[in-house]
Amino acid sequence: MNALDIKEILEHLPHRYPFLLVDRVLECEPGKHVVALKNVTINEPFFPGHFPHHPVMPGVMIIEAMAQAAAILAFRTLGGVPGDHHVVYFVGIDEARFKSPVVPGDQLMLHARIERHLRGIWKFAAEAKVGEILAAEARMMCTVRDA
Questions:
Q1: Using CA atoms, how far apart are residues 105 and 89, in angstroms rounded to an integer?
Q2: Which of 113, 109, 134, 123 is nearest to 26 (CA)?
Q3: Residue of 12, 15, 33, 50 with catalytic role
Q4: Which among 118, 109, 73 is positioned nearest to 91, based on CA atoms?
Q5: Which residue segments constitute the domains of the chain, with CATH numbers given?
Q6: Strand boundaries in the chain, DSSP class E
Q7: What backbone torsions phi and psi does residue 72 show, to the nearest 5 degrees?
Q8: pLDDT for residue 2
Q9: C-beta atoms surrounding 77 within 10 Å
Q10: How high is the pLDDT of residue 22?
Q11: Strand 107-118 relative to strand 121-130, pairing
Q12: How far is the C-alpha of 96 from the C-alpha of 8, rounded, in Å?
């Protein structure tokens, strides 16, 4: 099980602040699954507007964090790191459900499992948890393309 620090994450994802949403990869089994984490802090750029008196991480950002973890899994499965000219695009998001709010101070655990990889399309089952509490889940399809 390969863990990745932030330097290695930056080699696998084109995202940068303020859109990089994976702080650490705890385990990654190429071809199978990944477990990553996002430390949610009050300093996130979306909290001042979502919502000023009750900060909650937007659901679309949770989905994006799960997708970034899945992208790392895809690149590790392919056996390399993407070049500067590679971008991972969403192809579809199905069965997205939001179960519990994510707030500053939470540690969001991101789980993604490969369901299928066929002709450049990856399908993942993903979930985000805070402790043992399910915050969100979705099935996602992504593809890697030249920018």
A1: 29
A2: 109
A3: 50
A4: 118
A5: 6-146 (3.10.129.10)
A6: 24-29, 33-39, 86-98, 107-118, 121-130, 133-146
A7: -60, -45
A8: 87
A9: 17
A10: 98
A11: antiparallel
A12: 29
Tokens 């920018």 — which residue? 147
The residues that bridge with 125 in the sheet, in sequence order, are 113, 139
pLDDT in tens, the chain (147 residues): 689 999 999 999 989 999 999 999 999 999 999 999 999 999 999 999 999 999 999 999 999 999 999 999 999 998 877 776 778 899 999 999 999 999 999 999 999 999 999 998 999 999 999 999 999 999 999 998 887
Q: Hey, what are 52's tokens?
A: 């000023």
CA dihedral (140, 67, 26, 147) positive or negative:
positive
Residue that the structure tokens 């950002």 belong to? 61
Q: Exposure string (b/e) for 103-127, b if CB count within 10 Å is 16 or more?
A: eeebebbbbbbbeeeeeeebbbbbb
Q: Please state whether the predicted TM-score (pTM) of the whole model is above 0.90.
A: yes
50 annotated active-site: yes
pLDDT computed for residue 1 by the predictor? 67
